[in-house]
Amino acid sequence: MRIQVNGTSLFADVEGPGLVPDGDTMREKPTLLLLHGGPGHDHSIFKPAYGRLADLAQIVYVDQRGNGRSQDSDPATWNLDQWADDIPALCDALGITKPIVLGWSFGGIVAMHYAGRHPDHPARLILQSTMARMDVDLVVEGFRTEAGEAAALAAKAFLTEGTPETFAAFGRLCAPAYSPDPAFPSTEDVHAMLRMVPNPELTMRFLSQERFDLRPGLAAIRCPTLVVAGSRDPITPLTMADEIMAALPVGSRLEVFDKSGHFIPDTEGERFFALLRSFIV
Fold it and tell me: What angle, rounded to 10 degrees, do the helices at 149-161 and 200-209 form?
């Protein structure tokens, strides 16, 4: 479906009912709003794996402004403030109150900024494999550790130049290091991921030019917050999760997955989804 939000049309999809029979009445389930990575990608990264949570919560998938099927907007509005402010506006349009918001990678950046700007809006916050600030040196070192010097140099070139050539080299040399599992991503997986980026220009521009630091705003977050990180993640290294935790209010929770990189659901899925289930309820 398409929803009018802040002067543009966002694509959203819904999985599972919001109301379910409970004896003689209807019980309202919580809403889990999923924010994808990128930017420049879409919500398909969550499917079908996250659908296993539909018995606990109604799941709302969204292609964020400028991403996926929601590209038809003014590029001048493709910024963190606007992406963050689109979330409560989308919820208003759909009649959603107190969502549980999960942001993965770039989606986690947006989720943090949203929760800091609108602290009374979310019921809970899940920050999966993400960063509160862009630190090129930390990312380059992450790829050096997981994939060697050639990958480190490719990451630095892409994150500072952001050209089609450096993007292609990043995909070839760095994307395989997103997961320590030798079965994923394969060369075919990497090529498929690059072909599936709906807005590569946004990806290149954001990652090579945007320099943000959200840590000062994290203290304003009021809802229960879960931070999830893979200890072998090169693009959002574990150090970045520690930075997030240091800036969040006391009582926030960090869960580290020692066998995982950036794709925790693919390497330690059973533990990961059990953790999400316990946090949602």
Answer: 100
